From TrEMBL:
Catalyzes the methyl esterification of L-isoaspartyl residues in peptides and proteins that result from spontaneous decomposition of normal L-aspartyl and L-asparaginyl residues. It plays a role in the repair and/or degradation of damaged proteins. It comes from Flavivirga amylovorans. GO terms for biological process: methylation. This is Protein-L-isoaspartate O-methyltransferase. InterPro entries: PCMT, SAM-dependent_MTases_sf. Belongs to the methyltransferase superfamily. L-isoaspartyl/D-aspartyl protein methyltransferase family. One of its GO terms (molecular function) is protein-L-isoaspartate (D-aspartate) O-methyltransferase activity. Its EC number is 2.1.1.77. The active site is at S64. It catalyses: [protein]-L-isoaspartate + S-adenosyl-L-methionine = [protein]-L-isoaspartate alpha-methyl ester + S-adenosyl-L-homocysteine. HAMAP family: PIMT. The gene is pcm. Keywords: Cytoplasm, Methyltransferase, S-adenosyl-L-methionine, Transferase.
Length: 213
C-alpha cells in the first residue's frame, strides 16, 4: 500500500491529460490528483495505473477510464454533504472520488467477489462510504431515498424507473444508456413526474446486469 513521489508525479500528468480533454472542475481534478489509483489495481499493472485507460479487474469487470470517472463526476456538480447513490461499486475508484468530493456515498455492487474485496479495501485507504451494499442496482435504494444524485457506472440497456423515482426534485441521474455503445445521459428531476434529459456523446462500459446476484 505504498504511494510514492513517482506515483504522485504520474497522477499530476494524468490530471494534465484530463484538462486537455476538457475536464475543468477543479474539485474533480484535485480528487483524481489525490487518489492513488494504482492501489485499486493488481500490482503487476502499476505501469498502466496512470494512463487514461480502462483496465480489467476481478469478476470480468473494469476500473473505468479516469476521463470517464472525471466526466461523470463533473456532470454531477457534487457539493459537500450531497447524498449520492452509486450503482456499481466495482473497484471503488469512483466511490473514492465521490468521497474525496465530500459526498455521502451509498454504493451498490452485484458481484459478490468485488463487493467483499472493495468493502475491506476502501476503509484501509480512508474512504468511508455511508453504506456499501451487495444487491441489484436496478432497484436503487428506496430506504435511503431521495438522493441529490445517482451515478450509474455500467452500461444500461434502458433507464431503470426506480432510479428516477429516487431522485430529489432538482436531483440528477447520470447513466450510460445503450447496448454495445452507450450514450452518456443526464436526467434532471424537474417535478414529481417531470424530467429533463441531456446527452453527452458515446462511451463504452461493461453491462449493468439485472437480477444476477
Amino acid at each position: 500500500m505504498k504511494d510514492t513521489f513517482k506515483h504522485k508525479g504520474l497522477r499530476q500528468q494524468l490530471v494534465n491529460v484530463l484538462k486537455t480533454k476538457g475536464i475543468t472542475d477543479a474539485n474533480v481534478l484535485s480528487a483524481i490528483g489525490n487518489i492513488p489509483r494504482h492501489l485499486f489495481m493488481d500490482s503487476g499493472f502499476l505501469d498502466h495505473a496512470y494512463q487514461d485507460k480502462a483496465f480489467p479487474i476481478a469478476a470480468d469487470q473494469t476500473i473505468s477510464q479516469p476521463y470517464t470517472v472525471a466526466f461523470q463526476s463533473e456532470l454531477l456538480q457534487v457539493k459537500k454533504g450531497d447524498k449520492i447513490l452509486e450503482i456499481g461499486t466495482g473497484s471503488g475508484y469512483q466511490t473514492a472520488v465521490l468521497c474525496e468530493l465530500g459526498a455521502k456515498v451509498f454504493s451498490i455492487e452485484r458481484q459478490l467477489e468485488l463487493f467483499k474485496k472493495t468493502s475491506k479495501f476502501l476503509p484501509k485507504l480512508g474512504y468511508r462510504a455511508k453504506k456499501l451494499i451487495f444487491g441489484d442496482g436496478y432497484k436503487g435504494l428506496a430506504d435511503e431515498a431521495p438522493f441529490e444524485s445517482i451515478i450509474v457506472t455500467a452500461g444500461a440497456p434502458f433507464v431503470p424507473k426506480p432510479l428516477l423515482s429516487q431522485l430529489k426534485i432538482g436531483g440528477k441521474l447520470v447513466i450510460p444508456v445503450g447496448d454495445d455503445v452507450q450514450i452518456m445521459t443526464m436526467f434532471t428531476r424537474k417535478g414529481q413526474k417531470e424530467f429533463s434529459q441531456e446527452e453527452f456523446g458515446e462511451f463504452r462500459f461493461v453491462p449493468l446486469l439485472e437480477d444476477k446476484n
